[in-house]
Amino acid sequence: MPALRRAFARESDPYAGADLGAARRLVPLLVVLSTLLALAFLPMMPPTQAIGDAGWAIAAALLVAQLVAVRRLARPEHPATPNALLAVAYGGVAGVALLEWLAQAHSPYMLLFMLWLGAGVGVHPPRRAAPFIVAVLVAGSFPLLYSPADPDAPRDIAATSLLWLAMGIVLMLLIASVRTQRLRLRTDERSAVMRAEKAARRVRSLEQVTDVALAQLPLDDLLAELLSRIGAVLELDSAAIFLTDEDGEALAVRATHGLPDGAGIRVRLGEGCAGRAAKERRALRLDDIQTTDDLDPLFRTTEIRALLAVPLAVEGRVIGVVQVGARHQRRFSDDDERLLQLAADRISQAIDRTRLNERAHQVAETLQRALLPDRLPEIPGVGLAARYLPGGPGTDVGGDWYDVVPLIDGRVMAVMGDVVGRGIPAAALMGQLRNAFRVYVQEHDEPAEILDRMNVLLDQVSPGQMATAVVLVLDPTGGRLCFAAAGHPPPVVLSPDGGATFLETTPSVPLGVLPYGRYRVFEGELEPGAAVLLYTDGLVERRDLPLSAGLESLRTAVAFAPLDPDALCEHVLASMLPDGPPGDDVALFALRNAPIEGPRLRLELPADPNELAGVRHTIERWLEAANVEERDAYRVTLATNEACMNAIEHAHGRSDFEVDAAISDEFEVDVSVRDRGSWREPRETGGGGRGLEMMRELMDAVEVTQGADGTTVRMRRSVERGT
Amino acid sequence: MIRLAELELGEPGDVRIARLRGELDLSNAADVADALASAAEDASLGLVVDMAELRHLDSAGVRLLFDLRRRLVRTRRQLALAVPPESRIREVLDMAAVAQTVPVEPSVEAAVSAVRAAYR
C-alpha cells in the first residue's frame, strides 16, 4: 500500500510540467479569435439547418458564453487553474461541434476546431495532449452521423480529419520541443543557482571551521565552539570529540555538543563507531543504525540513527576521533565527510598545539614549585607564611621565588625575587638564583652584600637576564630589620596598632642591569607583634592603573589585615585579587616578629648541639616578654642551656629532648629539661660536673631525677621584675 | 660562613691577640679550641683572647679555656683573657673560678701585659 500511495503521490499534479503561464495567455486569445471567426462564419452557414431559427439563439448563447469565459480567464489577480483552462478548451470543442450540427455544414468550422486544438494542446503537458486530440477528432467526425445524403461527405471529413491530426501532432511536437527546451533552460538555470548557493554555503562552512580567530581561544572553548559550528554547518543534532588516553587503549570524551556531558565515558579502541574509526584510522559512515552496538555509550542515551566519525591525527598518530550524529536516518555525503575531515585537522592542530603549551606550562610550573620551599622552617618567635599563585589560564609561569633561612645566631633571613621573563628559562634561572642565595647566606649576613653577589652571578650565568629581589634580615630579639632591594617593590610593615607603612628605600636597579652595581642596605624596625609582607609585582601591577595606585591599595589592604602571617596573606590576596589568579603570577611572603608569650613555654628539639643557641634565644625572648629582669633572665637562660647540654650529651644524638618552662604569678620560673637517654656520671675533666654546679649556683633549686626512660632536670628560681 | 662565633686573629708576634665574637657553646667549642691552639703556635710568648664581644659562654666554653691553657702550658706559652667588667660572661668565669688559673684582665692591653709579665 505505501508503494501505491507513493506512486499516486508522485502524480499528484497531472499538469506538472505544463506551461501554465503560456496557456493562461494563449487560451483567452484563441477563444476571442474563435468567437470572431464564428461571427464571420455564421452568416455564410446559418445555424438553421437542423432545428430552424432556434439555432440562432443557441449560437448567440455560445458566443456570449465564450466572451464570459474570456473575461473570467483574463483576470490577472486570479490566475486560472489548469482545470478551468481545460474546461474552456473542451467546452469550446463541444461548442464548435454544436454549431457544426446546427449548420449541418462542415468545412468552415474545421478552422475553429484547429484553434481549439491549439488551446487544448497549450493547456496539456505535451505527453498528455493525446486524449484531447482524440476528443477533437471525434467531435469533428460528428457530421458523418447526420449527412449521409452527400456521398462525398465522409471522404471530405476523413481527409480533413487526417489533416487536423497531422497538424495537431505537428503543433504538439512543436510546442513540446519549444517547451522542453525552455524547461531545460530553466532547470539548468535553477540548478546552477542551487549549485552556486551550495558552494557559497560550503565556503561559509569552511570559513566557520577554519576561522583564524578561533586559534586565540583556550582549548576547551575552541573545541566547544568548533563542535557547535560543525553541528550547525552539517545540520546535525550532536557532536563529540574523543581523545585517546595515555596508553592509547581507549578514548575518553573531551567535548560534546547537543549531548549530555560525557565526562568519565570511555570507549575502548575498536568498539563502537568512534573506537572503530580510531583503530582503523579512517572515516566511518553509518547511515541507518538499527542496533545500539554501533553506538558509543555517550550516544546511546539519545536516539541517534546516523553517525559519521573521522579520526584526529597528528603526524600520522591517531590522537582521537571527532564524531557527529543525527537523530534521523541520513546519508552522509562525501562533502560532509570532507568538511568534517577539515574540522578534524583543525581540531588536531589545536589540540597538539595546546598540549605542547600545556606541557611546557606544566614543566615550568612543576619546576617553579619544586624550587620553592615545600615547607617553611619553624622558628620560635617568628611567624612565617607564604603563597604562590601561578598566573591565570593561558599564561606561562614566571620566575617568582622566595626563601627563608634561619641563621644560627637567631636571626632570620628572607628573600623574595622575580626573574624577568616567563616559562622554563625563567623558572630555571630562578632555581640558580635561589641556590646562590642559599650559598651566599652561609657566607654573608649583609643583605646588600648578598644582592651584590647575586648581581655578579646573574651577569655571569645569564647575561642580559634581569631579576628583581629584596633580601631582609630580622633579628627577632631586638626587632631590628635590615634589608636591601634590587628594583623590587618595597616591603610593607603592619604594626600591631593597625598601621601599614612601606619600608623606606631609594630607587634601585634590578639584578643583571649593572654588573658592578652596589646595593644599599636600609634599616628598619619590626616591633614585637608586627609583621612584614614581601611580594612580587604581580600583586600590585594592573594594566589599567598606575603602579602607585596598586601600591596604595596594597597598603590599605594590609592596614585592615590580621597580624597572623597566614591570615595576612589570605586577606591581602582576597582584597587585591578578588577574581582569583591574575595574568601574572604572584608570590607573597609574610614574616612576623611574634612575641613568645604566655606563662608556659614548651620546646621539643633534636639532640643536636646546634639547637642550643635557638633554645637560649627562645627562652631569653620568652622571659623578656614576661618582663623578667635582664640579669635574672640571663641566669635562667644559662642554667637551661647547661641542662640542655647535659640532655644532648646523654642522648648521644639519638633522640629528642624536651624543655618545659613556666612562670608563675609570683614570678617563680620553673624549668624542666627531659631527655630519654641514660645518665652518665659527669666526667672528671669534662663540663658535666661543672654544668651541674653552675645550674645550682644560677638557680634556687635543682633536682635531677633519673628513670629508666631518661633523666629530668628540674630547676626553680624566683626572679625580679624588669623595669 | 655565618657562625655562631667569629674568630679574628691578630698578627703573629710575641703575644698574639685573638678576638672572639658571638656565642661560644657545645656546638663550636672544639673547633674554636683547635683554632686558638694553632693560632698560639705562631706566638712566642702566648695568646690573649679578647672576649669583649662574646655574648655567651657556658661550661663547654669554660672547659675549652682550661683545655686551651693546658695545651699552651705544654709549649710554655701563656694564656690571658680580656673581659670587660660589665660583660655578662664575667659571671660564668667567676662561677668557674677561671681567674685562679688563667689571668682575666679588663682590657686587651692589660691581658698582653699579664702575658709578658709572666716571663719577667
Sheet having the most strands of chain A:
6 strands, antiparallel
Largest sheet of chain B: 6 strands, mixed
Radius of gyration of chain A: 52 Å
* Residue share in β-strands of chain B: 25-35%
Helical percentage of chain B: 25-40%
Question: What is the number of helical segments of chain B per DSSP (H or I, 4+ residues)?
Answer: 4
* Approximate helicity band of chain A: 40-55%
Rg from Cα of chain B: 13 Å
What would you call the structural class of chain A? Answer: alpha+beta
- As a percent range, the share of strand residues of chain A is 15-25%
**Mean pLDDT across every amino acid position of chain B:** 89
Query: Distance between the terminal alpha carbons of chain A, to the nearest Å?
Result: 115 Å
Give the strand tally of chain A: 21
Largest interface: A-B, 32 and 20 residues
Biggest sheet strand order of chain A reads 3-2-1-6-5-4
Which parts of chain B are unreliable, with pLDDT below 50 for 5 consecutive residues or more?
Answer: none
Q: Termini of chain B, distance in Å? A: 41 Å
Quaternary state, please?
A: heterodimer
